[in-house]
């Protein structure tokens, strides 16, 4: 057959090869349990990845096998990523914040054969020892001096393991559709489900994510991925930074610690970072308390959950940092839409409207095709108000969950995201809810996310959730559940009054309850599933 | 088979679909023969592309057929690009500056069935009428009012043709390796050769080219592709701009006209542009004469030939425009290396060294794998001095020339670019020569490009070329051939003296000749092939 252009496969191996040759001198800085500030270069990283690949081979691991990781963002985790995926194996990142039963389920379901563990996380896995029979052994990510005592069997020391290996390795030539990494969903709406990324999906996602209107990563940047590498591969930054030659700064176990983050940003001159809203609240909190600044920081991505206005507003006004919203999910590698640069035609909007726009989920990145479907299965117009189920399609969208017995796609081949939202004529997506959290009152939809955002903007409110509960007259009505900031109290009337004028009057929750804390999932999201169970017997007052 | 992620094909159709939905409101501005400033939106463009696709179908054209274009950069050419490629046909862009015999050869070799012609270019094709028997007819890109008289047969008017068609069209589902566009090389070193781009190669090139460190295209930008759409698809900007939502400004037949370019830049607020060095010299010339400014312009790409220092220097110092060098070729879609943002580690170099660095061909864009090969076939180190044949590999590099009887790749599957250069440890490529132009004196290489750049920096020199001629003692020695600026004269001694201290002493050409003009190719490059013929009988003086 006549093949006019080369059909060179899109593999992570090609990315590694490029990064080593072209960006090999760029630094990677990490915080680890055994070193508060480890630094070396991409060239060093990939050399050690080859040593590790040799080591994995001597352990009997073969292409197609799965290697688990229970680890933070640091250089050894980076080496494991590349060594495993480029050997044709699957790198299965496990979320250490999952409940033990969930971890057990996922390790078994993912068929992990070896597990690489951060020394600080060994105690987490020890209790599972006898419940994960397919696991042949553990590699503890440290040197001999820092090896923990452990009850686990078949335990190897990472540094000793690779020390004896050659730094030459012939990476196999892989088809671009070879699986590279496995990640399970957060389990917010049900059991975690496995998503198996391929080399192709990872690379294309990488290309799309570094565009000027998305992460806009440059060799001039210094990136701090706070989002964990066990959370959809750290939104791909551990791939895109070496691809571009961006210096990488990784916070290790300190990802939730405002002080460490602030120090890293200032000392390493971080320009760009990414994380969930909770992290930004922690950083803001620290900045306010300490009076510190983050002068090198230009822009941050907030994703994974709706971003509170205060994060967007204070980061910009007090610290001159642009907050960019991303929307996506495990099934999307994760990027779907991004709110980066704004079309010039909209820049002249009044500040308040512009703020609203900038807090939306953003516009589809090229590669992700989106449609909004009404309850009748018809596509809805992009008019800024018609809300419906969000469906997606594209080269880094899931096709089939890993070992799953139900169909993943709809009859037309679209993936139903489980989110509900609307699109405007510029392609700005607004997420109004999760399908499972939707509140339907008197036949009309109420956005729980918008109500929550509005409640959280009250200066005394720490966290808020809205759930729909059965109602005799309206079929369902919203209930507002609020956690106050320490030492603050307000009453029901004041809380509900705060919402007046800010949302449609019939959206105002029919009641409000104050609690000490809300249930959360392993990725730190409010678990409305648990909240609904908790309020199953709630009675409306009238 | 278990396919974990969607394998949605990378097609230009998907790009068009995205651009229409997400960036549909963005403007496209063109200069045409029938309208000095036509403007509409991407939405309008793709609607008309569907009308055109219907029209092509009624003409009997089928997937796999080739449609030629002899046209400038304007909106109708844009519509043709998408209508043809997304119908599964091949869009063959013809360079109107080719000699008639070359045009005839390429039209026949490319098997063009219909040709779309700009009204101003009809006279160019008329003489070929009886020599291109496979061509079934011509579509003149204008409305009835502007139709030229012509001796061609089977001539249709573009606007009338599409006016009667529906704006609904079911684009075929294409495999991503389907050919999309055909372009012939410039014929600088021999006969033009056909390169057939696929949907996949075009899309991947697009992704790579919009990176922050390459074109860095954003929805905030306004792009003016001056490089013709018949010259490697205008370096892909007619794809990447709609992909990102960048407003597109197209100069039509006025691409060489400094005044029009300046007016377009200022009135349309152009931020980014791309073209060959000649165009930048024309623009600089106009700016100097008129005293005009180009305040919106932030950065320009210069590629296709070595960029004179004066372009880089004056654009930056007088007009605050960053000049970014790109290196590539028809066989590479065209992008190979790019000199955009500079690694922070190099930013502190002394200005002179930094200038030298910024005038190199740049660093490999992700996707292009480069190696430098010595005469013994061994790979050379990236040490900033080991010069050899540049070979490339990657998903938008040619695999086989169109209808060609010699192998296109070397035995290991690399494409030999025909260029000679060296790489440094940061991956900066320096082009020293074309393989066919290499001068070897006493066993050592002399860079004709470096000598030419140096000669052209003399304030009175308009153009300069260096060729190697046989020499009894040194086997070959360089001859400098110079065109002076109007009204200027200097003598041989002064000219050669100018080079002293700027290049190694044994590089100084053994003689210098002044001529009124140099021979050029259809893309405006100096034709050293013709120059060598012209000086075949030259005798060294001593
Ligand atoms: N910018 C955002 N605004 C609002 N919600 C967001 C945003 N980004 C992500 N989300 C929410 O996070 C979800 C994706 O999260 P993830 O893939 O981690 O698992 P999950 O959906 O929480 O868990 P599970 O699918 O197991 O129930 C999205 O479907 C969406 O509901
Ligand atoms: N930045 C640059 N600096 C120096 N030379 C360049 C640069 N960019 C491109 N070139 C030259 O242009 C060539 C590519 O041009 P193109 O594909 O238009 O055809 P051509 O090589 O001139 O013609 P042919 O291959 O038919 O002889 C490269 O091989 C290189 O020699
Ligand atoms: Mg989910
Ligand atoms: Mg060539």
TrEMBL record, chains A, B:
Keywords (A to Z) from UniProt: Fatty acid metabolism, Ligase, Lipid metabolism
CDD domains on file: ttLC_FACS_AlkK_like
Domain of life the protein comes from: Bacteria
Classification via InterPro entries: AMP-bd_C, AMP-bd_C_sf, AMP-binding_CS, AMP-dep_synth/lig_dom, ANL_N_sf
SUPFAM superfamilies found in the cross-reference section: Acetyl-CoA synthetase-like
Xref: Pfam families: AMP-binding, AMP-binding_C
Recorded coiled-coil stretches: none
Family assignment from sequence similarity: Belongs to the ATP-dependent AMP-binding enzyme family.
PANTHER family: ACYL-ACTIVATING ENZYME (PTHR43859), BUTANOATE--COA LIGASE AAE1-RELATED (PTHR43859:SF4)
Name of protein: Long-chain-fatty-acid--CoA ligase
Protein's organism: Spongiibacter nanhainus
């Amino acid at each position: 057959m006549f093949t006019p252009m080369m059909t060179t496969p899109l593999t992570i191996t090609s990315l590694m090869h490029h990064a080593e040759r072209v960006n090999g001198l760029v630094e990677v800085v990490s915080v680890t349990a055994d070193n508060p500030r480890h630094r070396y270069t991409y060239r060093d990283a990939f050399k050690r990845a080859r040593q590790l690949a040799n080591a994995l081979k001597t352990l009997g691991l073969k292409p197609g096998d799965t290697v688990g990781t229970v680890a933070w963002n640091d250089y050894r985790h980076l080496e494991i990523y590349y060594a495993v995926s480029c050997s044709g194996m699957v790198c299965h990142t496990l979320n250490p914040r999952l409940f033990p039963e969930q971890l057990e389920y996922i390790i078994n379901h993912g068929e992990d054969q070896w597990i690489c563990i951060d020394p600080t996380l060994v105690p987490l896995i020890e209790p599972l020892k006898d419940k994960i029979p397919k696991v042949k052994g553990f590699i503890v990510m440290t040197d001999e001096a820092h090896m923990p005592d452990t009850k686990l069997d078949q335990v190897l020391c990472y540094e000793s393991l690779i020390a004896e290996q050659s730094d030459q390795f012939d990476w196999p030539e892989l088809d671009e559709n070879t699986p590279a990494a496995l990640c399970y969903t957060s389990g917010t709406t049900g059991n975690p489900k496995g998503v198996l990324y391929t080399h192709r999906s990872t690379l294309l996602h990488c290309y799309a994510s570094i565009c000027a209107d998305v992460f806009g990563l440059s060799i001039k940047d210094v990136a701090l991925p706070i989002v964990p590498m066990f959370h959809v591969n750290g939104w791909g930054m551990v791939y895109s930074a070496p691809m571009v030659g961006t210096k990488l700064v990784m916070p290790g176990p300190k990802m939730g610690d405002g002080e460490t983050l602030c120090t890293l940003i200032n000392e390493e001159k971080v320009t760009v970072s990414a994380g969930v809203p909770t992290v930004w609240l922690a950083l803001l909190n620290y900045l306010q308390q300490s009076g510190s600044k983050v002068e090198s920081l230009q822009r941050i991505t907030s994703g994974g959950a709706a971003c509170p206005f205060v994060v967007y507003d204070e980061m910009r006004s007090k610290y001159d940092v642009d907050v960019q919203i991303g929307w996506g999910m495990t099934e999307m590698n994760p990027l779907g839409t991004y709110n980066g640069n704004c079309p010039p035609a909209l820049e002249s909007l009044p500040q308040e409207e512009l703020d609203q726009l900038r807090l939306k989920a953003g516009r589809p990145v090229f590669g992700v095709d989106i449609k909004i479907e009404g309850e009748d299965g018809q596509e809805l117009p992009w008019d800024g108000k018609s809300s419906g189920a969000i469906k997606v399609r594209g080269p880094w969208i899931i096709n089939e969950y890993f070992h799953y017995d139900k169909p993943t796609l709809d009859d037309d081949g679209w993936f139903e995201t489980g989110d509900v939202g609307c699109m405007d004529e510029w392609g700005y997506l607004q997420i109004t809810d999760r399908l499972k959290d939707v509140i339907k009152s008197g036949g009309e939809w109420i956005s729980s996310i918008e109500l929550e955002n509005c409640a959280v903007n009250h200066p005394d409110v720490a966290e808020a959730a809205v759930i729909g509960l059965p109602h005799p007259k309206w079929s369902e009505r919203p209930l507002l559940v609020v956690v106050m900031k320490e030492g603050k109290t307000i009453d029901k009337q004041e809380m509900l009054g705060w919402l007046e004028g800010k949302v449609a009057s019939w959206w105002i929750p029919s009641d409000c309850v104050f609690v000490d804390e809300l249930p959360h999932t392993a990725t730190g999201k409010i678990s409305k599933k648990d909240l609904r169970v908790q309020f199953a017997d709630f009675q409306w007052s009238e």
